Amino acid sequence: MAAPLFLLAPPRSYTSLMNAMLGQHPQCFGLPELCLFNVERLVDLWVRSTDEMGSEAKTRHGLLRAVAEIYGGEQTMDSVRMANHWCAARQNLSTGQIYRELVDKIDPLIAVEKSPAYTVDIQRLLRIRETFPDARYLHLTRHPVGQCKSVMSLYDGTFALFVNSIDFLEDRAIVEPQFAWYDLNINILNFLDTIPAERQMRIRGEDVMNDPPKFLGMICRWLGIRDDADALDEMMHPERSPFACFGPLDALFGNDPNFLSGPTFRPHKVKVPSLDKPVPWREDGQSLKPEVVELAREFGY
Amino acid sequence: MSDSDTPPLGQRPKLGPIDGKPVTTHPDLSRLSPAQRGLRDALLREFKARKAKKFVEKQVHYINGNRQVAESIKILFDEHGQPPANAPIEDIIEERRQLEYQVRWFEAMLLELQTRLLRVREIEALALDVLERSERE
């Protein structure tokens, strides 16, 4: 079984595009966000853990679409219904067993997945290591200002609130996404400390966006797969992925809705903002926290 | 930072004031003062209220059929309720495309609902059959 590749990054760090690009490599298979390692057993994906926030139904869409595509060869309402039955028949298995079954099915292609939800909790990351001791990890970084602005623009910063990225002022609490940027990257770093150096790579998302052939080629060589012009050209078309569009009505998502509605890669130069200026999502003129600046510098910003 | 200050591998400390897992799996609020817990609750309540308000606004927009119809045929009339002398052809084409798209969408929804209804009826009939037979026996 080919060892899978996991993209580790907080959400809104170019993960959808990178996952689809790498997944289009002729020797790879780009999966949607499976979110399998969020929980221990498959049935737990169907169980609501608390009523404090949000809907969890969308977390299943990626898995249902993947099963429909891999086993049914199409993503329709009928094949998604089949995928639901497929899951029901395996509901008491561990999510690791389910994941291995999927990876076995697409072997010899290398499974490529990113579920930013994995980075929320190191236990989730440790489940990956336990299931795939030989997996490889690509730590994808994004400048804190760019990432936080993007988080705040999506559903009023729901994600930041979801992970308790909250700052306390004298008379009120506000959503402060830079805590999430820092803590999720710290989760990743803490986890990667347990992984041999040759099985991990760190790359700045902005660099890939600015010069995809150079950096995608570098990733291919690290993975030991083809880096010829044809392979690289295929990777420049993330929109060709079967998951780079909305799914059928009962499994619409499985990825960032913005990516699903416009998955084509458009060459552009990404500007890297300053680390010292006041951040745009705060009204009190505060800048990035010193710890955030220090970590961003460690990432090369 | 000296070497002795460097945290051991895999144990770098976090920054956020709230530790533990995300809100869906019970965060650790023990480091917060009672006032901060109250502020956090207020923030969550405000967020949920804003979300609910947006949802309702969107639903009202969808279900207000008369207004939608009026909006969609607005370009066909001027302020006196008469057809405009020079309606731009681009607007008319765009309107026609949008209406066709909506019709297709509704047809697909209808088809799916009819299929589901058919299946539910089959299951219902089967269940009633079984019930009737078991009652007779």
TrEMBL record, chain A:
Cited InterPro entries: P-loop_NTPase
SUPFAM superfamilies attached to this UniProt entry: P-loop containing nucleoside triphosphate hydrolases
Protein name per UniProt: Sulfotransferase family protein
Pfam families per UniProt: Sulfotransfer_3
Organism per entry: Rubrivivax gelatinosus (strain NBRC 100245 / IL144)
TrEMBL record, chain B:
Domain of life where this protein originates: Bacteria
Region span, Disordered: 1-37
Protein name: Uncharacterized protein
